[in-house]
UniProtKB/TrEMBL annotation:
<dbReference type="GO" id="GO:0006396">
    <property type="term" value="P:RNA processing"/>
</dbReference>
<keyword id="KW-0808">Transferase</keyword>
<dbReference type="InterPro" id="IPR013123">
    <property type="entry name" value="SpoU_subst-bd"/>
</dbReference>
<dbReference type="Pfam" id="PF00588">
    <property type="entry name" value="SpoU_methylase"/>
</dbReference>
<dbReference type="InterPro" id="IPR001537">
    <property type="entry name" value="SpoU_MeTrfase"/>
</dbReference>
<dbReference type="GO" id="GO:0003723">
    <property type="term" value="F:RNA binding"/>
</dbReference>
<dbReference type="InterPro" id="IPR029064">
    <property type="entry name" value="Ribosomal_eL30-like_sf"/>
</dbReference>
<keyword id="KW-0489">Methyltransferase</keyword>
<dbReference type="InterPro" id="IPR004441">
    <property type="entry name" value="rRNA_MeTrfase_TrmH"/>
</dbReference>
<feature type="compositionally biased region" description="Basic and acidic residues">
    <location>
        <begin position="1"/>
        <end position="19"/>
    </location>
</feature>
<comment type="similarity">
    <text>Belongs to the class IV-like SAM-binding methyltransferase superfamily. RNA methyltransferase TrmH family.</text>
</comment>
<dbReference type="InterPro" id="IPR029026">
    <property type="entry name" value="tRNA_m1G_MTases_N"/>
</dbReference>
<dbReference type="InterPro" id="IPR029028">
    <property type="entry name" value="Alpha/beta_knot_MTases"/>
</dbReference>
<dbReference type="GO" id="GO:0005829">
    <property type="term" value="C:cytosol"/>
</dbReference>
<protein>
    <submittedName>
        <fullName>23S rRNA (Guanosine(2251)-2'-O)-methyltransferase RlmB</fullName>
    </submittedName>
</protein>
<feature type="domain" description="RNA 2-O ribose methyltransferase substrate binding">
    <location>
        <begin position="55"/>
        <end position="128"/>
    </location>
</feature>
<feature type="region of interest" description="Disordered">
    <location>
        <begin position="1"/>
        <end position="52"/>
    </location>
</feature>
Length: 288
C-alpha cells in the first residue's frame, strides 16, 4: 500500500467488511526540462506535504513529533499499551488521544506498517528559504530520489551529521509522511526539508550564496577525498539507477566520485549519502 493510499484510508476511516552513487545511468531529458519556467516559492512546506495533513506512525517518529513545538498535532490515535507507555515515560500528548484497538490502526495503515500502537495526523512543517540557510556546515540536495525508504534513511544520517537542510524537488520525490517518516525514525523533526520546483535553479542560487556544490557521480573526474572541500557545502545525490541528471551535473561546481576498493564500485544512494557525509564532515573539521 502506498503512502498516498494510507493517507486516503486514514482520512476516510477504516474500510468496511539501480544504485544511488549517481551516474550509473542516463537522465531523462523530458523530465529534466519540465520544471523550466516555474517560479521558486519563497516559503514552502516540507517535501511532499501533498493535500491535507501528513500521517506519522511508530514510536520514535511520533514521540519526536510530540516533542517538536513547531509541529502541529491534529489528531493522535493510541492503543492502550502505547498510552500506558506514554504515561510511564511522562510524555505530553499535547492533544486528547483517541483510544483504539491495534487492529484498527492496522486496517488504516495496512498490514506491513509497524506502528507500535501510535499514529498521528499532523500539519507539515514550514521550510526555510534557501537564502536563510547558514553559511557553514553541510546541506544535502536530492535529485529526484523517489524511494521513501532511501530518503528516510538519508534523513536519519543527515540528523546524525547535523546537516542544515535537505533540498529536494517538488515532483519525483516521496511525501514527507508514512514510510519516509518511519524510516527517518524522528529525523523529520530535526532536519528542515526544502522543496523546490527547479533543481538547477536552486543549485545556481546555492552557488550564488557561496555554497560549494559537489555532485556525486561515478563518472566524476576526482575522488571526493582528494578534493579540497569548503563550507558551506552542498552534496548533491542522484536518483536510484539514473543518477544525476545532465543539467544537475552541469550546474554543480564540482562533480566527484566515491572510489571503492572492492569489485562493486557503486552504492545504494542512502549508503552513498552517509559515506559522502562522513568524508565531507571529516575534511571540514565537523566531527568534533
Amino acid at each position: 500500500m502506498s503512502d498516498r493510499e494510507r493517507k486516503q484510508r486514514f482520512q476516510r476511516g477504516p474500510d468496511k467488511g539501480r544504485d544511488g552513487q549517481s551516474g550509473q545511468g542516463r537522465d531523462n531529458p523530458r523530465d529534466q526540462g519540465r520544471d523550466h519556467g516555474r517560479r521558486q516559492p519563497r516559503r514552502g512546506r516540507e517535501s511532499g506535504g501533498g493535500d491535507g495533513p501528513a500521517i506519522l506512525y511508530g514510536w520514535h517518529t511520533v514521540i519526536m513529533a510530540l516533542a517538536n513545538p513547531q509541529r502541529k498535532i491534529l489528531k493522535l490515535i493510541l492503543t492502550e499499551n502505547a498510552a500506558r507507555r506514554l504515561a510511564e515515560e511522562k510524555i505530553d500528548t499535547r492533544v486528547a488521544p483517541i483510544m483504539v484497538r491495534p487492529d484498527e490502526i492496522d486496517r488504516r495503515l495496512g498490514p506491513d506498517a509497524v506502528h507500535q500502537g501510535l499514529l498521528a495526523e499532523v500539519e507539515p512543517l514550514e521550510s526555510p528559504d534557501l537564502d536563510s540557510l547558514p553559511q557553514d556546515g553541510i546541506v544535502l540536495v536530492l535529485d529526484q530520489i523517489t524511494d521513501p525508504h532511501n530518503v528516510g534513511a538519508i534523513l536519519r544520517s543527515a540528523a546524525a551529521f547535523a546537516v542544515k537542510a535537505i533540498i529536494t524537488t517538488a515532483r519525483h520525490s516521496p511525501e514527507a509522511t508514512g514510510v519516509l517518516a518511519k524510516s527517518a525514525s524522528g529525523a523529520l523533526e530535526l532536519v528542515p526539508m526544502i522543496t523546490v520546483p527547479n533543481l538547477a535553479r536552486a543549485l545556481n542560487e546555492l552557488n550564488d550564496l557561496g555554497f560549494m556544490t559537489v555532485g556525486l557521480d561515478s563518472e566524476g573526474a576526482e575522488n571526493i577525498s582528494a578534493i579540497p572541500l569548503q563550507q558551506p557545502l552542498a552534496l548533491v545525490l542522484g536518483a536510484e539507477g539514473s543518477g544525476l541528471r545532465r543539467l544537475t551535473r552541469e550546474t554543480c561546481s564540482v562533480v566527484a566520485r566515491l572510489d571503492m576498493p572492492g569489485e562493486i564500485k557503486s552504492l545504494n544512494v542512502s549508503n552513498a549519502a552517509v559515506l559522502a557525509l562522513y568524508v565531507g564532515a571529516s575534511k571540514l573539521g565537523l566531527m568534533g
